[in-house]
Amino acid sequence: MDRRCGQDGDLLTLESLSQLQADILGMATRYGLRKSPVIVGHTAGFTNVVDYIAPHWHHTEQMLDGLRTTMLRTKGMPSILRADIASFGFVYIHPMSDGNGRISRFLVNDILRRDGAVPAPFIIPISATITDNSRERAGYDRALEALSKPEEVDQLVSFGRVLRQLRKDAGLTQERLALEAGIERNYVSLIERGINQPALRMIFKLADALGTTPSEILRQVEAELAMAPALPSKRRT
User: Which of 86, 122, 126, 134 suits 160 as a labelling partner, its CA being 20 to 30 A distant?
Assistant: First the structure.
């Protein structure tokens, strides 16, 4: 794979991925995009455990386009972050009929080579490390599971998301909203990021600056929380 690693061109096009798939799999019966469901799991004793269900194949091309756009927009960012995005994003989409795991691990070396982080001819032996060590394999599986789960949302995060959307709908920057509400811009940022909890008086100020009501803001927060996975409750001991 060294001869293909870091080469010019867009690796995430269907044509490039199909050629890479053929190079990795050699003689195989299935090439190209998948047209069937993907369910990944394992057996625990006599029980079949489902670890992951891939997106419907009708969405794979659109999701690949999104991943390709993300990689173009993140040029210049830390290479290890870009490599993670490419690899985990690809294996999450699971677009190909076969070889998705191996292609996703190839993408790590490809991005690092393209970005000049790992020079030729060096290759990080990701697949070899995973297959030769059960502990590394388990760690890899845990990482995939953690990144594939729906994001857990609490009340502060949900309030921040609603506030950000209302601000954007009103055509306001964080600076302008802060000015209209008579608060510090940094405080708006902290609320939108789910870090700071706004007091009741602050909610009234924000609602007035946004041209809405506190009850409407809270209604939207409740609606978002109803659609999101809840955080596990903490028991006092």
Answer: 86
Nearest CA to 192 out of 219, 223, 166 is that of 166
pLDDT in tens, 110-123: 999 999 999 988 98
Domains identified in the chain and CATH numbers: 14-148 (1.10.3290.10), 155-227 (1.10.260.40)
Query: Residue 161 belongs to what H/E stretch?
Result: helix 155-169
Q: How high is the mean pLDDT of the chain?
A: 85
Residue 175: predicted pLDDT = 93
For residue 102, pLDDT over 80 is answered with yes
Class of residue 85 by CB neighbours under 10 A (exposed 0-12, middle 13-18, buried 19+): middle
Q: How far apart are CA 128 and CA 136, in angstroms?
A: 10
Query: Alpha helix (H) ranges present in the chain?
Result: 14-25, 60-73, 79-93, 100-114, 126-132, 134-148, 155-169, 174-181, 185-192, 200-210, 214-227
214 touches 203 (CB < 8 A): yes
Is residue 186 scored above 70 in pLDDT? yes
What's the sign of the alpha-carbon dihedral 206, 208, 211, 215? positive
User: Residue 67 contacts by C-beta under 8 Å, 6 or more apart in sequence?
Assistant: 12, 85, 86, 89, 90, 93
- Using 50, 70 and 90 to split pLDDT, how confident is the model at 171? very high
Q: In whole angstroms, how large is the CA radius of gyration of the chain?
A: 23
Question: 221 CB contacts (<8 Å, ≥6 apart)?
Answer: 155, 158, 159, 162
The neighbour count for residue 166, using CB atoms within 10 Å, is 20
**Number of residues assigned to the chain:** 237
Per-residue pLDDT for 56 more than 70? yes
